[in-house]
Amino acid sequence: MTVKIIRNGLTHALSFRPAVFYVIPLIPCLTYSVYFSGFVIQFLIEKMGMIGFLPPPYGYYVTDVVVAAAIGVATGLCVGPLIPVCSHWLARFSILQLLLHVSVLALALSSQCFPYSNLAPKRVVFQHTLVTTDANRIVNSSYGFAVLDSNSLSFLFKYAPEVAKGLYTGKELSFETTDMSSRETWLGSFPVSLLFSQTLKFPARSDGIFKHYRYFPHLSIYKPHTISSDRSRRVYLEFSLGDLEEVWVTILNITGPLSSWSFADNILPDPEIVDGGPPSYMLRLSGTSQANWTFWLEASSSDDLRVEVAVVDQVLDDEVERLKGLFPDWADVATYSSFMSSYIF
Fold it and tell me: Where is the signal peptide (predicted)?
């Protein structure tokens, strides 16, 4: 069977038999290409939603451009081999007009759709920060919020007004008077906290946590320090988690002239430098322990060693539970308590 097409006064005969022989061997390859491309695009879209908040105005479009480029490449790989067969149909002006109108209509409709749902939620981090001193004293308490995509916290509170009213007990939220939380506040979530570009801090009560715990994490010296012949100083420390029950992770951020420690065969990792700050050595301890941890830190000089401790616990007080319940279903909220303290040795 042949089809005759008149083009520029000439008659061209297109046979279906060569086209069929050309397409049939491609079916397994095209099927796998569609499956693999769909998997890659779905994975890419999920990861693009977790790259962090990028500064506007270009931050709103970076992820869309990356996803669009990936979809274009995937479409070319899946449809490209069929172009020699169907090019004479696609080249018609009416077909091009139809594709253009469908694209414009899809853009117009997609811009009116809400970008989040139960299956594709907006990821929000809600941290109750408790700054402690000694073993049972809280000197500061605050709520911290952060997001992991290009829609900032103003977008979140605009479409979740109940949360904003809950934070201000019925008053209207004003971003001009709201404090930005420092990066040090998010030590417990390091290195995920590097994805946070905009974070907000709100004052919070601390008495609710005493219903669950009496003693908090603290660091202390359990025997006098020693000085070696090369003038290096070794400090012996003991770390207690208090009576915390559901500890997820403990982070120790050590700055100063640290030359060795009792972890990892006394080998120091490469230091972390964040926002031009001093070199920091990060130590991560997972889970809980029935006994206190004892270890030593060695300084190469008499200068002070500064240790910042952040313990992430999954127990929430009643007020935090209430605020978490105010978030809509399209927000996936990771909520935890972070006990922070600082020491100089």
Answer: none
Type of residue numbered 60 = Y
DSSP for 222-246?
Answer: EEEEEE-TTS-EEEEEEEE-TT-SS
Nearest CA among 220, 239, 228, 251 for reference residue 298: 228
User: Is residue 284 within 8 Å of residue 251, measured between CB atoms?
Assistant: yes
What tokens appear for 328 in the block? Answer: 């809509």
What is the DSSP code string of 102-116? HHHHHHHHHHTS-S-
- Residue 274 scores a pLDDT above 90: no
Bridge partner residues of 6 (DSSP): 11
Write phi, then psi, for 57 (nearest 5 degrees). Answer: -85, -20
- In this predicted structure, the answer to whether residue 100 has a pLDDT above a threshold of 50 is yes
pTM above 0.85?
no
Is the distance from CB of 225 to CB of 235 less than 8 angstroms?
A: yes
How much is the pLDDT for 174?
61
CA distances from 162 to 159, 255, 275 (A): 9, 41, 34
